[in-house]
Amino acid sequence: MTAIRTCHIVDLAIDDIDHEFSEENCLECTRDIKESFMEYQIREIGPETSVVHRVNASLFHAALVRDPDFVLRVLRNLEDDEAEFILNALVDSTSPQFVNDTWTQLAKKEIESTSQMVSVIVSVGGNQKLLRQLAAFKLDLIAKDDDGNSLLHHLVDISEKYPSTALSMYDVIQQVLEIDELKQLIKARNKRQETALDIASRCWLPEMMHAILNTNKVYKFLLGECGTFNHYYYDVTELEATKNEYGITPLFHLSLVPEHRLKRFDEFQLLRKEPFATSIEELFYFGKHITLSWLLSWIAFVILYFTALFHIIVSSDMEVKTTLNIMIILVASLGCISEFMAVPAMWPLFKLIMRNTRAGKQPVSMVFFYKMLQTSFYVAALIAHCLHLVGLRFICSSVALQYIFLLIQLNSIVNGILGVLFFTQLSNKMGHWLIVIEKMLLSMSSFVVLSCFYIVAFTLAFSLVVSTTVACETANNGTVAFNGMINSLYETTVLGLGVTVPKDLYFRSNASSLLVILIFVGSAVFNTLIMVNLMIAIMNHRMTALCDHAESIVLVAQVAIYELVELKTFSLQKLSPCILPATLRKRCIAKSEDGTRSFLYTIEPVEVPE
């Protein structure tokens, strides 16, 4: 590493900034850079040749976010190759320590964690003018750091908290770089083989997703101007190839957006901007008829299954039962085969959902979960009726097997009903209600935990006060009431929930009857006034928060459904090209003459500058 003498800036007041970046320090910093450049040249001649050169963070790097004039004065004092050397060297940012103002604190945080490049440090500060000026001094805007991240990768990270800063710096990059260099920057992959667009999509950053895909002459091309509207086409060759290879596209990431990102998406209106709006319309057009046939066939099968199950239960004709069982087994087998044929296409999406879930980023729409329930329905129906057909006597020989058999049948019934409810998300008016109910039920977990603590406390208190061995003559048979722990827990829990009125045993047959009355009344008041209102408050809060984004929720759910349909269609088409050939028609996507590139055609209104 080239050693530049580090100028530490510790405990400086804001008033001392002018003194710190004085002309004397400028000359000293220039001299240090020249010495470091000579050391670098000597080392490059020797056996320790390295493509990447590094320097310690110095006063020059501190000035990138504090005093741009100081930076320019230093660069003007350097030769061209010396200026290029200091601008493109990777920075060891263990020093200096900056003063306590807003931009400096931000820069300090970013430099210490990720920023090894001068271009990134300037971008963190948001100084567009300085970035343009440094580009004139041959600052390499397409260079990479040790992790393979380019400047655009870092702009995506910056946009997490400061989207306007990231967008403004990206505008400068588009103005400075040539088209070939800009394309190289956008297509660059880090050591995890991710482009900047991949990271922006994975982190659900709508501003950078839109900015990258709207980069002129890389993704976006002007086809023609027509009055107040312009005609464009977007190069979606890579996205179509990724989709055909069962990869994850930006639209897949959008279908898995978590709830905490909905507000940001609504504010930016990403799903209604190009190319996403037309891509979604194209997706809906592609899967409209297949989704409708899927809906009708599923509803028909569930209705016929419940009807057949009812006849199997009530009918005494064994031939009818056998025939119905065989029919259910055949249809369920076809359903299982269809589902398992789509596993290779669904597997990358399943892994992505599991990774997001483990990171606490559950998708707002649980479409994939309902798809799993439909698969579970086919499997449960197949197993249950195979057992019913060939192993009913064996099942009846064991109580445990009977319970297992009943659970399998119950699972198929519940999954069938939920599978039908799944399609309500296709409705623009009622599609969000199922998701609202899901989130409200999940939010009830805190209420359930509090309720459990309350019930346990009430039960233990009552059990201590009320003797479990008191003999109580009942009106019916004179048996001993409250004579066991299970009965004690049951009776006191029911009382705690206010379901029944206390019996004579509680109020008269106990020595501490007044204490018993106080416990019961306090429990009832606590239950009705606090717990019930808490439950209502939780539900009201969740419903309000979700209904504010109802339109986006419905659109995201529909995108997820149609993405699953498209994946399944592609998987079936790959296995047998003669299956569903008409579904491969595209309305807004065209191929180039040689068939190697795909373009998405859009019509957009002319943007009037403010």
Automatic annotation (TrEMBL):
Keyword field: Membrane, Repeat, Transmembrane, Transmembrane helix
TM helices/strands, residue ranges: 292-314, 326-347, 368-391, 403-423, 444-466, 514-536
GO MF annotations, alphabetized: calcium channel activity
Gene Ontology CC terms, in alphabetical order: plasma membrane
Source superkingdom: Eukaryota
GO biological process assignments: calcium ion import across plasma membrane
Name this polypeptide is given: Ion transport domain-containing protein
